[in-house]
What does this fold into?
Amino acid sequence: MTPNFHLWLIPMLPLVGAALNGLFGKRFSRQIVAGVALLACGAAFAMALAVAFQAGSLTLPHSELLAQWIRAGSFHADFAFYLDQLSLVMLLVVTGVGFLIHIYSVGYMWEEGGFYRFFSYLNLFMFFMLTLVLANNYLLMFIGWEGVGLASYLLIGFWFTKDSAASAGKKAFIVNRIGDFGFLIALFLMIREFGSLDFEQVFHGAGSMNPETAGAGLLTAIGLLLLVGACGKSAQIPLYVWLPDAMEGPTPVSALIHAATMVTAGVYMVARSHAIFDRAPTALMAVAVIGTLTALFAASIGVCQTDIKKVLAYSTISQLGYMFLACGVASYSAGIFHLMTHAFFKGLLFLAAGSVIHAVGGEQDMRKMGGLRKHIPWTFWTMTAATFAIAGFPPFAGFFSKDEILWQAYSSPYGSWVYWLLGLITAFITSFYMFRLWFMTFFGEYRGDAESQAHGHQPHIHESPKVMLVPLVILAVLSICGGWIGSNRFEVFLSPALAPTEAARTVEVGNLEVQFTLLSVVIAGLGLLLAWWLYHRRPQLPSQIADAMGRFYQAVLNKYYVDELYATAFVKPVIDGSIRILWRGIDQGVIDAALDNGARGAGEISDSMRRMQSGNLRSYAGWIAAGAAVVIGYMVWMGTR
Amino acid sequence: MVPLSYYLALGGILFACGVTGFLVKRNIITIFMSIELMLNGVNLSFVAFAAQWHALSGQIFVFFVMVVAAAEAAVGLAIIIAVYRTRETLNVDRVNLLKL
Amino acid sequence: MQLHLVLFVIFGVVCVAGAVNLLVQRHPINSALSLVVVMGALAAEYLLLGAEFVAAVQVIVYAGAIMVLFVFVIMLLNAGEEERTTGSRIALLFGVPGVVAGSLLIAWVLLSRFGAQAVAIGALPGPPKVIGWLLFHDFLLPFELTSILVLIAILGAVVLASHPEAQPKKER
It folds into this structure.
């Protein structure tokens, strides 16, 4: 008999935590709020671990039905959970990294107002994300999809009294909705074609269809629409604009949602839907193209940013582009592998950045930092590990996953050297801007807060408390060792979930692959060197170069004016249209006017009828007599008919 | 032998006069008396029909009409007295405080 | 010409004349006295139809009590001649034509249905004995109810017409 793991508990425990903290948290002390939140998330993590340990004895995929939901004619959708290797990996990543970030947040948010609200939202996010990951049909996944968008909005706008934060939350939600629209249409097409949204049924149905050759076809349409949804959630071109703004939220939020878990939902969804994408080469190519372009584009913007969190935000977009590239050349396991290692080192980068910001008292501009390595050693060393990991140096985790992606981009049947070359260039730029960040923050002289320096006393830079450092250390260890499982073993592990359309890969490493690996390490080293030269040895050079590049530099600094373009092309017309047509035209002119005129008409009618109530006895008598005559006439007429 | 319609016509004329008085007159007591006139006209019709159809209940009904008319006259005149005390007038056009 | 018809016409003319006079007179006391005349003539009409009890009651109650009450009130309030106020256009505009129309309609109906049938003089005798029998057998409930009605009317009239200042004086 298939054992019942009560998978539904894994999302439900954080939901209970969210409810408790949300409803009663105001009355709890901070310790209790933190305790509830950590307990909920920790219990989910413990359960995930337990499931993972027992997974070996299971035949996967393993489904558990919690309750019936929709039975509409021939369409079924249930609250059911699905466990296979892919969801197991995602589950461990989400709960593990999530738990570490919860611990970190206790320290980071301790002084903040709205403590209980933060943890309630955080737990709520965990609930939705786990639902997304464990769902066994697209509809339940969509609930999780939308829910993480909601949690993201709530958390980005956590300091909602600040205008920029509130706007950022709105922007995230709206841009996500655009993606969700594509996702919905894809779901509708799936229902129409396959009659169901269950993974097994959809993939079975897709599996029995022929691969579509040239562009057209239903599977291509579904694939492209799913890609739209994924672009919204995972911040790819053209729907990436919300993620840099989302840095208005507290740093743990950026770490959890915008680095490790939520933005990876798109990648997970594409990997999960591989049965569809494998049979729609055009959609697959679109995934790869968008991934590559986004990776390069975002990396180029990251070079010029001065806010430490914005650099990391663009870095996230860029790394997500890598994951999409991997999926786009049908090596889904490489994408998921990078997702996992990215969760480790990007989560660590954000948490460490939060520690840095916390240390310098809230300053986020890197130009005002420097020389911090003496003051905050723990943060420095953990961030160093993460930086080397993201740049792709062996033996750190990022090396293994990024290398695999670059290799697959070249060698996969869907790949091409163009992808590889652009990926390589992006790797160089990634290494450059990450080490730029590293040098500007931790090396050199402290440039911050000129006033206090003028007064002679050292600025009060303090290391973060242990509750924040322990997760950093754990993540640093993972960033170092996380890739040692090796991409080949990882691929074999995931193959039951992602095959059978992947061809069996050769396990031995060919000559060309070794050369590519060496090349990417060299490129990473070049990036480090360039950053060292520009930001450590000759710090006055970068501004000279910027002046020399003039307009181009300005364009990159302003993110290629994409936000402004969107504002004029889309946002302003929609707002104007809303004001003129929907508000003044329909809401005021039609709905309000109908009601107002109706009411006024009633008033006018009663005004005219009111004249009958003159208080004058004789007019009453007159009306009665007239009315009586009418009635008598009617009766006579009826009588003579 | 008088045709029934003659009696009914007489009753009708009395009723019409009563209604006209009700509409046209301005003194409230006169209006009241017009009401009594109307009732009398109706009484005549009742008795005429009773005679026509040999149903004594017509005359019984006349009896009740008169009782009610008496009660109504008593109460109505009391009201008129009360109104006169406050408004100092018997002109019904002046007693129009109940207007909207 | 039969006596019945002659008597009917005489008393009928008296009725109508009284009714018209009620309308025409300006002083309410004149109207009241005209009404008394009408009621007397009506009593005669009732007798012609054989309704003895009703005729007697008409004279005793209607002409003798109700109209006396009216005359008392007119004298009490010292109502003078009527003034000419405009007051209501509706009454004249809608009311009178309405009345006329209604009356004509009813007249037409009645004449077309009952035009030919004739009523004999004293057609249905209604001596007090028979009326009493009916009142206390078939119509007992309405009879008792009207007694209560009269009681209420008395109470109402007393309360409504009493002087408001009289109440406090009774208290010590």
Summary: Confidence is low (pLDDT under 50) at residues 500-508 of chain A. Chain A has 25 helices and two strands.
